[in-house]
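#struct-help
A.M.: can someone run this one for me? Single chain, 155 residues.
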Amino acid sequence: MPNVPTACRTKGCGGYAADRGLCQECLKNEKPPERVSKFDRRKEWKHLYRKSRWRNHVQPAVLRRDPICRICSHNPSTVADHIRDHRGDETLFFDFKNLQGVCEPCHDNKTGTEHGIGREKNLPPKPTAVPEPGSIPPDVDFTKLLNLDPKKKKE
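D.P.: on it. Structure tokens below:
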């Protein structure tokens, strides 16, 4: 049974539908669907990040206060991060006690983890603990370090 041609669903178009209810001409002119990122969960309060108070005063002050990332203590801080998620609360948004300077990889990981989308691959290497000069860790075995066999006698 052959398909019966149907009218294009675009208002004012007199063409016949070819695909998804649209004629060939309307398919060419159709805009791609707007992509909404599932990772952008702050649309309701995105306007707060555009305020001049944030851009010109608060954010630069936090980055001056914390020049090194407060999470990894390795990279320079490039992002003013909210310690507690503000969820649009302006008082919490602009509170200096709730802000810290962090590097972008640490910020992306922290924010992603809080929102269930964390990535570990962009994290900078964690600094290794350096013992204080003159201190000896209690678990060091010097016989292994010096390649000495305690059972073997000196000749």
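A.M.: thanks! The longest strand covers residues 79-82.
D.P.: also worth noting: The mean pLDDT is 76.
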